Amino acid sequence: MTRLPMKDRFSLPDGMIYLDGNSLGPLPVGTAEKVQDVVQAQWGAHLIKGWNLDGWMAQPARVGNRIARLIGAPEGSVTMGDTLSVKVFQALSAALKMRPDRRVILSDSGNFPSDLYMAEGLIQQLGQGYELRIVAPEDVASAMTDDVAVAMITQVDYRTGRMHDMAQVTAAAHGAGAVMLWDLAHSAGAVPVDVAACNAEFSVGCTYKYLNGGPGAPAFIYARPDIVADIQPALAGWLGHDAPFAFETGYRPAAGIERMRVGTPPVIQMTALEHALGLWDEVDMAELRERSVALGELFIALVEEKCPELVLASPRDANQRGSQVSFASKNGYAVMQALIARDVIGDFRAPDIMRFGFTPLYIDEDDVRGAVDILADILATRSWDRPEYHQKRDVT
Amino acid sequence: MTRLPMKDRFSLPDGMIYLDGNSLGPLPVGTAEKVQDVVQAQWGAHLIKGWNLDGWMAQPARVGNRIARLIGAPEGSVTMGDTLSVKVFQALSAALKMRPDRRVILSDSGNFPSDLYMAEGLIQQLGQGYELRIVAPEDVASAMTDDVAVAMITQVDYRTGRMHDMAQVTAAAHGAGAVMLWDLAHSAGAVPVDVAACNAEFSVGCTYKYLNGGPGAPAFIYARPDIVADIQPALAGWLGHDAPFAFETGYRPAAGIERMRVGTPPVIQMTALEHALGLWDEVDMAELRERSVALGELFIALVEEKCPELVLASPRDANQRGSQVSFASKNGYAVMQALIARDVIGDFRAPDIMRFGFTPLYIDEDDVRGAVDILADILATRSWDRPEYHQKRDVT
C-alpha cells in the first residue's frame, strides 16, 4: 500500500486546488501513454485484429473485475459499458420484472435527477400503472411499503453529500419484499462499499468521478450472482448474447453479468479507465476513508471559523457524509466562479449549493487550508460580486 | 475535393491489404495527436472546465452536424452518443409510440442481429401483444401490411452487401401507414444517402466502420425535424433534458434531437471521431460511389476467374450492392484465417460468408488485384487447410 496522498500519480496543473474530483477526476500519470498505445499501436497497427490480439473484447469483464474489488462484489459479477443512465435503466427494468405484481419505484429527492428521469421514461414506456414515488432521504426506510417493487437510491447525495447506510436501507427494502438498486456514483472510490455484504440485487455507478476514468468513461453494473441468470435484459444487445458471433436471429442472453453488455464497448475510453483503476491496487480503503473524513472535518471547521455567512449543507456527522462537503449560500454561484478564477475548483449545484469533493489520493490538509483562505478572502472582500461571476454557464 | 484514394491520410500497416473497413475503419493520420490533445491539454489541464472551455458539451451536436451532411439530413437533426444498439432502441420505442394502435415491428432476415435482439428486448418489456415479424429482404415492400407500426431495416446487409432502395422501401412503409427506421451502419460513408429525400422518420448508424471513428466510437441518431418535438424518449437521460443543469426533479425533453442524448458523452472517443469526420469535407460522394462500384466489379471478375470454387453471395448488380462483396465457401472460416495470415484482411460471418469491404478512401485496383492473387494462391495450394486456421475465435 502507498501512503496517501499520492499526488505524483496525477497530472494536476500547478497551483490548482482541485476539489471537484467528485465531478470529473483528474488525469492519472501514464494515461496519455496508454491511450496513445491503444490508438497507435493497437487500433493503428492491428486494426480489426485488436479485438482478440489486444484483448478488447474481454476488456469490459477485466475492468469490471477491478471495479468489483472496489465495491465488495465477487469476481465476474460486474461489467462495463454505456453510461450510468443506461445502466440505471437496465437494472431498473430488470428489477421491475422481478416483482411483476408491484407497481412502485421508490426513490428519494436526493437522488441524481438522471436516475429519476430514467425511471420516468421507463414508466412512460411501460404504462400499466407504474409509479415513481419520491420521498425525503430520511424517510426512505419507513417508506418501504409492500407495494414497492424496487428501491432505487443513490448512496451519497450529489448535493449535500448525505450518505445512506446501505446495509440498513437494503434490509428495509428486503423486509418489504422490494428489490434494491444502488447508484454508487459518489461512492465507488470515495468510501468503502460492500455490495455483497448488504445483499442488494443491483448496483450501478460511473467511473469519471472518484475513479478518474476521464470525461465520458463507461459505467459499471453489478447484479447479484444468484439472480443474474433470471434477468431478461430490456436492452438486449448482441454483446450481451450468449454467442454474439454466431449471429443467430433470436436473442439468448449470456450466462452471467455479460448479459448486461449491449453494443460495442468504447475501447479507447475503457483503456484510460483500466489504467486509472490500476492505482487502487495501492490504496487501502480504510486509510482512504479516514483521510477523507479528516479532510472534510478540517474543511468544515475552518469554513465555519472564517466564513460564518456560509451554512453547512452536509450532515455534520462524518459517518453520514460521503467524501464531499457542501455549503449553502444565496450567492453560491458567483462565489464559486470567483473561487474557480483563483484556481480553487469546486462546483455549484442549483439552487444554492457549493460543493467540495475531497479525494485523499491527491488532496491534503495544506490544500484544504489554502482553499479556505481563498474562500474567506473572496467573501471578506466581496470579490465575487462582479458581473462576470454572475453570468450563467451550464457547467463549472 | 481530393481525388481518391487518399491513402496518405490513413495510418495503414505496410503491406497490409485492408478489406475490413466495414468492420473497423483504419486510423486516420492525425487522430493520435487529437486524442493526445484531449487527454493531456484538455482533460489534464482544464479538468472539469473542459466541458465549456473545450466545447465537450456541444460536441455531440457538432459531430452530429458532420454526420448530417453525409446522410442528407438537415443541420441540427442528428445527435451522437451511446452505441448503435442503444440508438436502435431509442428510435424503435419512439416509433412504436407514434402508432399506438399497431403491434408489428417489421424487419428482414438480413438485418444485423443486434437490431433484432433490441426489438425482441423491447417487445419483451412492453408485452401488450407486440410482435417482431421477420421476412426475407426481397419481401420487405410487399410485407408492409396495415398492422405494421414500424419497419426497421438495415439498408445494406452485413453479410451479403445487398442494398435496399431507401426511397422505395420508405414509400412502401408510408403507404401502409408505418413509421420507417433505417439502420445506416453499412451505408454512412459507403454510399450516397439522402434521409431527407426519402422522408424516413428515423435513421441510426455507427461510426467505427466506414467513418473511421475508432473501436467503440459513438453512434448517431436522426429524427425527422417535424416529428422530433412529439417524441417521448424511452431513455430519458439528463443530457436529453431541456435544462440538464437546473437539476429539476421531473423530466422535460430538450426541444430538438438533443432529447435523444442520454448520459455523459464519451469525450475521448468523440474527439477521435470528430477528427475522422473531417476527412469527408474533401470527398465527393458520387466519386466515392463510382470508385466503390469499380473496385467491387473488379474483385468479382477476378475472383470468379481465378477462384471458381467460390460462390458470389452478393448481388451481381452493383446497384443493389453496398460497398462490400461477399463470397460463400464451406471452408470460408479457414480460408479467411489464411488470408489474414498473409495480411489480406477481410472477415468471416457465420455460417459460410467471407466478406470484403471496399473503401475507396484507401483501397485501389492494385489492392484488389493483390488480394485476389493471394486468395487464389491459398485456394490452389490448399494452404488454408491447417489446424491453426480451423481454430475458432470470436472476431477476425
UniProtKB/TrEMBL annotation, chains A, B:
One of its GO terms (molecular function) is kynureninase activity. Keywords: Hydrolase, Pyridine nucleotide biosynthesis, Pyridoxal phosphate. GO terms for cellular component: cytoplasm. Gene3D superfamilies: Aspartate Aminotransferase, domain 1, Type I PLP-dependent aspartate aminotransferase-like (Major domain). It catalyses: 3-hydroxy-L-kynurenine + H2O = 3-hydroxyanthranilate + L-alanine + H(+); L-kynurenine + H2O = anthranilate + L-alanine + H(+). Signal peptide: none annotated. Belongs to the kynureninase family. This is Kynureninase. It comes from Sulfitobacter pontiacus.
